[in-house]
Recover the amino acids of this structure.
């Protein structure tokens, strides 16, 4: 694929790209994708998947509308294993999308920084959460999740990055990743895969 030819110019990254090609595509129902990201915060992938399945079960196994989420009681949402904070954050997402009449099509057409600026207005939604949404749901090919622990660990190992502060680490990571533009999302996907396979 085109992205691999570009990323292989980084000789240290090239060996990480041997796995199958990744595909980045748009997914519908952005508010539910954002709710899934909130559910997954500070949880393993496996546990997050279980709780998200319970979340869908509250709505007969289908992805709910924002109105349906707001109509669901706090007790029902708490019963699937969500903290009170996450219940409020999920409700915040539903209210924000309804109030501002945000559509998938609108988000697909926006620039990354504009998406981050818009959605981080929602209490409980930080920059990392929006970056995950852009990468996995909005089809953005040039997302670099500098705050992601997995990406940090992978790049420290792969590039031998030494830093005494988080700011210094971020600066060095961003400098390295600048060579990957406009395909930084794919680099992140391969780095996560490399890490998960025991490289770190």
């Amino acid at each position: 694929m085109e992205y691999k030819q570009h990323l292989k110019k980084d000789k240290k990254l090239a060996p990480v790209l041997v796995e199958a090609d990744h595909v980045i595509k748009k997914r519908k129902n952005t508010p539910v994708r954002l709710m899934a990201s909130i559910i997954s915060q500070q949880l393993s992938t496996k546990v997050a998947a279980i709780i998200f399945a319970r979340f869908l079960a509250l709505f007969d196994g289908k992805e709910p509308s924002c109105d349906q989420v707001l109509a669901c009681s706090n007790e029902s949402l708490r019963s699937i294993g969500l903290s009170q904070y996450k219940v409020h954050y999920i409700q915040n997402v539903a209210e924000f999308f309804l109030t501002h009449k945000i559509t998938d099509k609108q988000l697909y057409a926006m620039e990354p920084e504009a998406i981050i600026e818009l959605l981080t207005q929602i209490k409980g939604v930080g920059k990392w959460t929006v970056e995950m949404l852009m990468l996995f749901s909005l089809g953005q090919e040039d997302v670099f999740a500098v705050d992601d622990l997995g990406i940090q660990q992978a790049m420290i190992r792969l590039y031998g990055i030494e830093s005494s502060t988080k700011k210094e680490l971020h600066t060095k990571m961003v400098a390295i990743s600048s060579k990957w533009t406009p395909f930084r999302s794919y680099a992140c996907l391969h780095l996560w895969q490399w890490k998960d396979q025991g490289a770190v």
